[in-house]
């Protein structure tokens, strides 16, 4: 049986750009458009030309996309003006792209209050705008704003808007739940009514996440007959965000209820890039990825419950609703006090450390992890520290260097101008394994940890070249008040700016500087250990 | 028409505790339980007694809850053992609480593979476990693990598990979508089948967010007949999280499709605490609140689109699906100052500072708070700092003392025995208002902040007696990476060991020591301000 085609319309660069705190540059828009094109979406809405300089520039010199159609967003022309006399409309028409999507009012209340025109004037403006786009040889779409509230207020008028757009030649008539207030069970009967005036093969759905139902609403709309889905990568968007394509796409491809009936431009092979696409967007936005994001989150296939962990090893499929590899993600069995031997075993196997279930080293690592966790350590978010610990216990990690002493000073004082300023300074004394003389390094920073980090990474002698591209990108502090004395747990995220690899390390001490120091040392040692392993691999490769 | 009752079952402290990186202390569990009780949920699942020391201690000395029923989680007793011979089961039975929820396998495949027992042995174990709980005079619940996958694999057996639990006396039989793979449209027909063996008034739903449909799935289940909903605050939980009660509760209360038919323990008045409850959990977890969270997020009612913003001013209701105040949140118009004035006014009124809505000081405080929030401050959890700020702007707070300079040093070195030790030392120079000579104080501590705190509180001259009983009891650090430069926000909790009063203060700086210093200063100044007010009150009291 041949499958029906579903169309994916991405508005990350337009509606997603409405997110509080997001401000894409032209270059960033180009990069994201390329990622979306690679992923296989059908439409990439790039922005609103004429509304701001970034979007105007993007559409003057549009990115070359392989299969996705670049789409410009705009507003239906003003009533009482011809299309050629409306400068806003003409700015959109000037965009160099094969498709244009215009927003139109579908709620008669807003036609009256916000536009101040008659219902018929609004319909005429919609029809003339669509006709102008079609006449220019391009694909026309109409976003029916507040469609569902409009339908509840005046169904006949909301339907008239949809029909007018369709009859004027719009390829897609998109039903927008603009304020995100519609609930999943409402879509079926409303859309059934809409399909009486516009065929489902010409209907799109655009939802917002204000009740946390944007994904479900989109899926329900597809079941009710619409064939185009609008959304954004990672669900970014105004207020609570738009429908999250990163969650919708895998459901369409991997869940038989949809996969058996429909196909999209995202093939199974492209789907394996989904996690990567999601992370790239976060990278561009300089955000920490949501660890708990469905399908693509770092923890989406992670488990720390002991009862589950041992069973997952027996048969992962019954515990995972889809295979993590299908979306380019991976399974994680977390090392924690709730898990037991089997999760340590699984963690070690994942690291490529071959150990038997009953081997003594496994018991020793488990005991060490348990006693460290009792002292405040937590390895579930610090896999690099765990790997270092395990490999050290196996005798695989040499001591590259040691820090004999350090001193950190923070001083607040009046400067020459009489202003109160605070300065931070650190001195470390490092002994490199095999070298005769210790190295003294001094670092200044905007705080004590920053100063210590700089001093520590200033000069590691012959190891320096390995850490040249390592950056501390995140630093988290938690005070644990479990026992009698409070201890500080520090989690450090490091980034290799060349390879893009990230790793997490942990340090614990009653003293925050000590705890930070330990996590920083682990971060450096992890990098040196990994580089050493790579050298061995290459040497073996050459020998073979 | 009388409404049907829906029951809310919160598992933040049990399933939520499975979240990667979350590790509640007993004290934190108590605090969260109190927040949930205040909010009006029906059940608070506190943890798994016997599985770890934290949960065992919690249930040995349970928190006193007003209306919510504290619930212990456990596993159905092992097959082939009597309930009294199963030590794990007995550890759960030993919990001091009025309700117990046991997880049971509902998928025959897992009965065989994970438990290695027969289908009938599993049913017998479930019945005997429920009977034992009922015989102890408590409410029994069964979580049917993997119910939906089980139903798809062997419907008759999944239904037999549900019926067995119900017939043995379980108050609630909870259908769990354990791996989160079930889609919204599947609930109606499956639950219709379940209600043939267990009445909907005894059915619960427990969903996970692996396809981003946990909220929709819970709502669909209610429409299909279940009357208990399990979920967590902020949707925390293993992998992608549990059903988010913070989104579900307002939908049940504010959307007519549910509000007209159902009522819950959360009244409209309690619903206004929802945003606060959500933020408190983040505070305890030391997480940045999700700005885009439905209903309670900082941006949930924010808009930056010019076209929308001006229209919202005309008529907010048609642009907002619910009123932000109904969940204790607020509208944010990024083009206008309207948003914050009423909340600042409310905060000042709460402190007993009488100001008119239009008074100039209100605008000045609002401006100051806004500019400080832009710099990284947050007064949501630092009311003492807010009160100090507001009263200072009203000219009510004199300068008691000032710190002209400080120096903090942390040193790691070998001690006389040759061990590596780290010492922290701080020196502060304090000028007391009205005194001629500055006071130098030195403090040692287990970390730089501790040393600084001790030095600062060692000698405040004539104010010393006021701070003698003040202790720093909690200290939280968060790195904010909003702007170009990362800043550190420190939150300090202080305790008067005599009166038991606690207060929270905040400090922000790129330098963690500076930020800590600011919060410590606020903590001391707050105490001096409060004591001064008490002196005035007492004097007035004597005069009358």
What does it look like?
The structure is a homodimer of 544-residue chains. Chain A has helices at 26-39, 53-60, 87-93, 108-115, 119-135, 147-153, 155-167, 187-194, 214-224, 245-254, 256-259, 268-271, 274-285, 306-314, 316-319, 341-350, 360-374, 383-393, 448-456, 464-467, 512-543, and strands at residues 4-5, 7-10, 43-47, 69-75, 99-105, 139-145, 172-176, 203-206, 228-231, 262-263, 302-303, 332-333, 401-414, 420-432, 439-445, 470-480, 487-496, 502-509. Chain A is an alpha/beta fold and 544 residues long. The first copy, chain A, folds into three domains: 4-285, Alpha-Beta Barrel (TIM Barrel), CATH 3.20.20; 302-374, no CATH class; 401-543, Double Stranded RNA Binding Domain. The radius of gyration of chain A is 29 Å and the shape is elongated. The first copy, chain A, starts with a strand and ends with a helix. Chains A and B meet through helix 4, helix 9, strand 11, helix 14 and strand 13 of A and helix 4, helix 9, strand 11, strand 13 and strand 16 of B.
């Amino acid at each position: 049986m041949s499958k029906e085609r579903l169309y994916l319309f991405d508005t990350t660069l337009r509606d997603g750009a409405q997110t509080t705190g997001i401000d894409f540059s032209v270059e960033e828009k180009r990069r994201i458009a390329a990622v979306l094109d690679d992923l296989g979406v059908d439409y990439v809405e790039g922005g609103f030309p004429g509304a701001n300089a970034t979007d105007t520039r993007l559409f003057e010199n549009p990115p070359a996309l392989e299969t996705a159609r670049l789409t410009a967003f705009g507003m239906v022309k003003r009533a009482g003006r011809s299309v050629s006399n409306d400068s806003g409309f003409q700015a959109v028409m000037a965009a160099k792209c094969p498709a244009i999507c215009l927003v139109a009012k579908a709620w008669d209340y807003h036609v009256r209050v916000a536009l101040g025109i008659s219902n018929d004037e609004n319909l005429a403006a919609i029809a003339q705008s669509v006709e102008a786009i079609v006449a220019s040889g391009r694909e026309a779409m109409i976003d029916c704003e507040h469609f569902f509230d409009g339908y509840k207020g005046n169904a006949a008028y909301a339907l008239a808007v949809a029909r007018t757009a369709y009859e004027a030649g719009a390829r897609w008539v998109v039903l927008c739940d603009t304020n995100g207030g519609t609930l999943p069970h409402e879509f079926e009967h409303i859309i059934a009514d809409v399909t009486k005036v516009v065929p489902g093969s010409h209907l799109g759905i655009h939802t917002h996440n204000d009740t946390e139902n944007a994904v479900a609403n989109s899926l329900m709309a597809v079941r009710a007959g619409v064939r185009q889905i609008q959304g954004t990568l990672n669900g970014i968007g105004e207020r609570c965000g738009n429908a999250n394509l990163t969650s919708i796409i895998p459901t369409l491809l991997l869940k038989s209820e949809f996969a058996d009936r429909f196909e999209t431009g995202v093939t199974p092979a492209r789907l394996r890039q989904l996690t990567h696409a999601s992370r790239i967007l976060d990278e561009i936005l300089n955000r920490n990825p949501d660890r708990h994001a469905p399908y693509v989150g770092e923890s989406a296939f992670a488990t720390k419950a002991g009862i589950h962990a041992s069973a997952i090893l027996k048969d992962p499929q019954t515990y995972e609703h889809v295979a993590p590899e299908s979306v380019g993600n991976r399974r994680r069995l977390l090392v924690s006090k709730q898990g037991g031997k089997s999760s340590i075993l699984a963690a070690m196997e994942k690291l490529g450390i071959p150990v038997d279930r009953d081997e003594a080293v496994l018991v020793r690592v488990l005991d060490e992890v348990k006693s460290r966790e009792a002292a405040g350590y937590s390895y579930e978010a610090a896999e690099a520290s765990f790997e270092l610990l395990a490999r050290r216990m196996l005798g695989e990690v040499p001591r590259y260097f040691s820090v004999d002493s350090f001193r950190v000073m923070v001083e607040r004082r009046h400067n020459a101008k009489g202003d109160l300023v605070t300065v931070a300074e650190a001195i470390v004394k490092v002994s490199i394994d095999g070298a005769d003389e210790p190295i003294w390094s001094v670092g200044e920073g905007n705080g004590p940890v920053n100063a210590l980090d700089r001093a520590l990474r200033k000069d590691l002698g012959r190891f320096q070249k390995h850490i040249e591209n390592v950056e501390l990108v995140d630093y988290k502090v938690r005070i644990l008040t479990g026992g009698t004395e409070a201890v500080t747990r520090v989690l450090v995220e490091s980034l290799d700016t060349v390879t893009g690899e990230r790793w997490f390390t942990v340090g614990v001490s009653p003293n925050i500087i000590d705890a930070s120091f330990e996590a920083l040392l682990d971060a450096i040692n992890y990098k040196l250990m990994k580089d050493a392993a790579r050298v061995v691999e290459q040497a073996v490769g050459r020998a073979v």
